[in-house]
Design a protein that fits this description.
The protein has helices at 10-21, 61-69, 74-77, 101-111, 117-132, 143-148, 153-168, 177-186, 204-207, 209-218, 263-269, 275-282, 341-344, 348-363, 416-428; strands at residues 2-6, 25-30, 56-57, 78-81, 84-86, 92-94, 197-200, 222-225, 231-235, 238-242, 256-259, 286-297, 306-307, 319-325, 330-337, 372-384, 396-398, 401-403. With 430 residues, it is an alpha+beta fold. The chain folds into three domains: 2-77 and 202-284 and 389-428, FAD/NAD(P)-binding domain; 83-195, no CATH class; 286-384, Protoporphyrinogen oxidase, mitochondrial, domain 2 (Polyamine Oxidase, Chain A, domain 2), CATH 3.90.660. The strands form five sheets. It has a six-stranded mixed sheet with strand order 8-2-1-11-18-17, covered by helices on one side. A hairpin with a 5-residue loop joins strand 5 (84-86) and strand 6. Helix 1 (10-21) runs parallel beside helix 15 (416-428) and helix 2 (61-69) packs across helix 15 (416-428). The longest helix has 16 residues, at 117-132. It is globular. The N and C termini lie close together (9 Å).
């Protein structure tokens, strides 16, 4: 069949690769000059700048499989580490990634610094109870309500709430407990290595977007960057793409179309074709993520990713990542603020000042120490707001027309794995 994939984010790339493997003639359209969508680099150079800090998990089987299929060795571009929720002072919980999985978890819990006996027993009871219930709950339940009466304040604030905000990019008081439990089931309680952190060693473009584009072109697929599809039209022969940026070629109708655009754009393109589907996609709320690059006195890092004490009034960031060491004893660090909507109401400058003060406190820096914010990157529509009871649109839009994206109905929140799975599922449905 002749297949058009609209959007070259990770969902669109997955759809285009799988459709090409299936023997279809594929045209891939992307409005931006670079592929990758919301997980992209400025260009494909070895020192390219990413649009924010991104991590993967060891349980991202479909994403890692897709990378291998387009010629990328995950071991070369990703640093695999056992999951650790360590704070700048070295306290927290860390898996070793060795020995039997249950023994490793028990050892991590027993040796966790900063948690008392009551905290550890609370966490153990939670794990046993969630496994007994098969990680299921009322779809209307929020994470805040799930944890309120069954976890100690320290377990909530230093472990489970940061994990929730990082995974769902949604405040815990409204976040979906159903989705959060699904994440825990398939990562922390999944197969060995599923909860491992996979930290990029290379720019995001080198992880999947550029190798996928090269792979597609080498196999005869047509890739059209800077080509925005302005409208879809059903014809007697299939689907027509319309847009001022589309040249005369490629012309003619497509047998199938995969819409791998953001939810708002997919809703616009389908407003007349599938009003009910469009309404559900268009009603999704979104939540921003801010990534700040600061320069501060160099310090020891207990782990390549540090958790930070955060709250709604003074300390915005949940996690910090080290940058490369630089001259004069100074080092860059990346501070990530998920679910950042409330913080951004006062502007990016106020957010930067709060993050700098937070880092001073976490690192024990004196007031005279130099700390500056070098760069603030804000993705205002980073993910859909994964609230309890959220309605997500189905993959099927109309005969011959499917949606792909991390917002499409599924068990997980908006992650790279969700995007890849949705792209592959869309092609399976063709």
């Amino acid at each position: 069949m002749r297949v058009a994939v609209v959007g070259a984010g990770w969902a669109g790339l997955a759809a285009a690769v799988r459709a090409t493997q299936a023997g279809h003639a594929v045209d891939l359209f992307e409005a931006a000059p670079m592929p990758g969508g919301r997980a992209r680099s400025d260009d494909d150079a070895a020192d390219a700048s990413d649009n924010g800090q991104h991590i993967l998990l060891g349980g991202y089987a479909r994403t890692l499989g897709l990378m291998r299929d387009v010629g990328v060795d995950p071991a070369e571009v990703l640093q695999r580490l056992p999951l650790a929720m360590l704070f700048p002072d070295g306290s927290g919980l860390a898996l070793r990634g060795t020995g039997p999985r249950l023994l490793d978890a028990a050892r991590a819990l027993a040796t966790a610094r900063g948690f008392g006996v009551r905290d550890k027993l609370s966490l153990l009871r939670l794990a046993v109870d969630w496994r007994r219930r098969e990680f299921r709950c009322d779809p209307a339940l929020t994470v805040g309500a799930l944890l309120r009466d069954i976890a100690t304040p320290r377990v909530r604030e230093r472990l489970l709430e940061p994990l929730c905000v990082a995974a769902l990019n949604t405040p815990v008081d409204v976040a979906s407990a159903e989705v959060f439990l699904a994440v825990l089931r398939d990562s922390l309680f999944g197969n060995r290595g599923a909860s491992d952190l996979l930290l990029p060693r290379a720019p995001l473009a080198r992880l999947l977007p550029q190798p996928a584009i090269d792979w597609l072109r080498a196999r005869g697929a047509s890739v059209h960057l800077r080509r925005r599809v302005a409208a879809l039209q059903r014809s007697t022969d299939g689907w027509l793409l319309q847009g001022a940026s589309l040249e005369a070629e490629p012309a003619g109708a497509y047998d199938r179309v995969v819409l791998a655009t953001p939810a708002t754009e997919a809703a616009r393109l389908t407003r007349e074709i599938a009003p009910a589907w469009s309404a559900v996609a268009g009603a999704l709320a979104h939540e921003p993520i801010a990534t700040l690059r600061i320069r501060a006195p160099a310090r020891p890092w207990p782990a390549p990713m540090l958790a930070l004490e955060h709250d709604a009034t003074r300390r915005p960031a949940q996690f910090a990542f080290p940058g490369s060491a630089i001259e004069d004893g100074m080092q860059d660090a990346m501070l990530v603020v998920s679910a950042a909507a409330d913080w951004l109401e006062n502007g990016s400058e106020a957010l930067a000042q709060a993050a700098i003060a937070q880092w001073r406190e976490a690192s024990g820096l004196p007031a005279a120490a130099s700390v500056e914010c070098l760069d603030t990157r804000i993705d205002r529509r980073a993910t859909f707001r994964c609230i309890a009871g959220v309605r997500r649109p189905a993959a099927a839009i109309a005969p011959g027309l499917a949606a792909a994206g991390d917002y499409v109905r599924g068990p997980y929140p908006a992650t790279l794995e969700s995007a890849v799975r949705s792209g592959e599922t869309a092609v399976e449905g063709l």
